[in-house]
User: Fold this.
Amino acid sequence: MDGITIEGKLGRKTSNALDLPIMQGAGDPIATGRQSGGETKKGGKLAILFGFRNGGTGTHSLTFADGEVLHVQSRDAAPTLVTRPDGVEVAVIERGDTSIARSGGRTVLTFAPDPDEPKSVELFRMLVSDGSGAPLGRFDIIRTNAGWSIGRIYNTIEDLWVWWDRAGQGLKLPLLGVRMELSREPTAGERQLLCAAAVDITVGLRPYIAAMR
Assistant:
C-alpha cells in the first residue's frame, strides 16, 4: 500500500517500563508512549521494575515531539479515556468487536477487523476508517518477528518473540509493536488518536477487535 507509514517498536527503559517510540519516516519519534505505574496500587513502580507488570491497565503517558502530553487510561471492562494532564477529556475509545474513537461525541476513527485475516501467528490486522467512514488504512499489531516483513521488508529484531495468548512462556515483551499503512496524511486529531490507540494496545494490552480477545 502506497502512502504514509507510521510504526512503533516496543522496548523497555532502564526502569523496565514499556516504551513505545512512534516513527513516521526517519528522524526523531513523532510521539513516545510510556508505561506508568505511579497511579496503581502501592508497589506498582516496583512491580514494573522487577518485571511483574508486563503491560496492562493503567494511565500511560503519550508525549509528542512538540512537548504535548496526553494520558491514555487503559481500563478493564470500560472504555479507554484519552485526557490531558489536567484531566480534560480529549477522546473516548469504545472497544468491542470493532472499536470507535470519539472526540466530543464525534466519531474520529473506527477500527474494524480485516475481513480476510484479522489474526495470524505473525500479527493482528485491523482496517481503520475516518470520521466520515472513508477508509484511512491498515493497522497491524505485530506479534512475532515475521510480522514486520508481511507487506513490507524490514530488518528483523533479534531475540524478541511473543504470542498474545501464550502468557507465561518466556515473554520478553507483550507485543513487538504496531505498523500503520495509511492512504493519506492523517489530520492532527487523527494522528493523536492513532498514537493513543497504539499505546492502548501494546502497553495497555487492550483488545480492539474480537480476534484479539
Observations:
- Residues 188-202 form the longest helix (15 residues).
- The helical segments are 44-49, 188-202.
- Residues 72 and 82 are 5 Å apart (CA to CA).
- The longest strand covers residues 106-113.
